[in-house]
Automatic annotation (TrEMBL):
Residues of the F-box domain: 1-45
Record-linked PROSITE patterns: FBOX
Source organism of this protein record: Absidia glauca (Pin mould)
Gene3D superfamilies in the cross-refs: 1.20.1280.50
Pfam family, one: F-box-like
Name of the molecule in the record: F-box domain-containing protein
Signal peptide: none
Length: 382
């Protein structure tokens, strides 16, 4: 409990008048303040029913499902979001606008490729598009081309533009699609599973019929950090690692006992292991033969050793390459050509081409911002 003469109820009432980003800044006062503020933010998000909307597909065939705050882990400092009971499945077969499952009133697409394009975005309801921090007088002094470039870069918010590619769906009858899949980033992890449609006709090379119907997607939960929530209104806030202690322990075990220094932290086996630490007795078989020498599941250890120095998603590969070029990986979402490459939307560019273009455009912006600062003075927010 922070040192204060105010009763806890009155203190929480005072905190309710502050926006989330101001509350977030007060976390640095002490550990007690951090615990109080984070719990207050969670309770406020839950009381106001702020939602995280999961948007799947591509316009105009996009579907959305809302998730609401359900739990808060004070030890891991992670907020849990879940869909409401009876509303956990995103289906292309039902156009129910009252439940906000479809963003458009168009009929379902004839091909599953249009709907299940493996593209997903997350939106937090408590956000507003931030105006540029440039003052009006500074904007007026710029020519139209400079003004357009400045606004493009200064109004960029990575979390609003971020897209994710869902794992591929298998039409093989032997595949167990009921198993949970995981999609993650530095500050969030999403769990879902595919629900195959009834009487699905498995396509083959000799098939001349229409494409099979799209699989349903059952959303289980979403885990996020507080900075992920705040970054929707404050794009300059840098994301922190979700379940940082678990990732650190896994890295320590893999490096010191097995010599595995490089692996894809966003791959599904890694994400599954990180999540399974919540219920290790239920998710890992009790047979000791399933464990390695360092108490890691043999399946996970085999995967890491087999795929060391490999990055299986386009997002993780680009992030790794940009970090090697001293470019902020969050700049991926600023440029349409990079977003198209990440979600596999017909991009003809190679990974090296995407990284090189991002690097060149960021260098161009840094040069322009330095020039504008010299012309407009040090007070210009470039």
């Amino acid at each position: 409990m922070p040192h204060t003469t105010l009763p806890l109820e009155l203190l929480c009432h005072v905190l309710s008048f502050l926006p989330y980003h101001d509350l977030y800044l007060t976390r640095g006062v002490s550990r007690q303040w951090r615990a109080l503020v984070e719990e207050h933010i969670y309770l406020d998000v839950k009381a106001r029913q702020h939602r995280v909307s999961i948007v799947i597909g591509q316009a105009p065939f996009t579907c959305v499902l809302d998730l609401y705050a359900s739990n808060y882990d004070p030890i891991q400092r992670v907020v849990h979001f879940k869909p409401r009971d009876g509303d956990t499945i995103v289906s292309p077969q039902s156009n129910n606008n009252s439940n906000r499952k479809y963003l458009t009133s168009l009929p379902p697409p004839p091909s599953w490729h249009l709907y299940h394009h493996r593209q997903m975005q997350l939106k937090f309801s408590n956000h507003s598009h931030q105006a540029s921090s440039l003052c009006a007088s500074s904007l007026q002094t710029l020519n139209p081309q400079e003004r357009e470039k400045a606004l493009f870069h200064l109004q960029y918010n990575p979390v609003l533009e971020c897209s994710y590619a869902l794992p591929a769906y298998s039409w093989l009858p032997s595949s167990d699609q009921a198993d949970s899949h995981y999609v993650g980033d530095k500050s969030m992890i999403l769990s879902f599973s595919y629900v195959p449609p009834l009487d699905t006709i498995v396509p083959n090379c000799l098939s001349t019929g229409s494409s099979p119907p799209a699989p349903q997607i059952k959303i289980h939960w979403l885990h996020v950090t507080f900075d992920w929530l705040i970054s929707f209104t404050q794009p300059k806030i840098q994301p922190t690692q979700i379940y940082a202690d678990r990732y650190s322990q896994l890295y320590h075990t893999l490096t010191h006992q097995y010599g595995c220094y490089k692996y894809d932290e966003l791959s599904e086996p890694i994400l599954a292991y990180i999540i399974q630490q919540d219920h290790p007795m239920h998710d890992v078989a009790p047979d000791d033969n399933n464990k390695g020498d360092g108490d890691l599941p043999k399946q996970l250890l085999s995967y890491v050793q087999e795929h060391t120095h490999e990055y299986h998603t386009r997002l993780s590969r680009l992030q790794h390459m940009l970090e090697g070029c001293c470019v902020n990986p969050r700049m991926i979402w600023k440029y349409p050509f990079a977003k198209s490459f990440v979600v596999g939307n017909g991009s003809l560019l190679s990974e090296e081409d995407v990284v090189r273009r991002i690097q060149d455009l960021e260098d161009e912006w840094r040069s322009l911002s330095r020039s504008l600062k010299r012309r407009l003075g040090s007070t210009a927010a470039f």
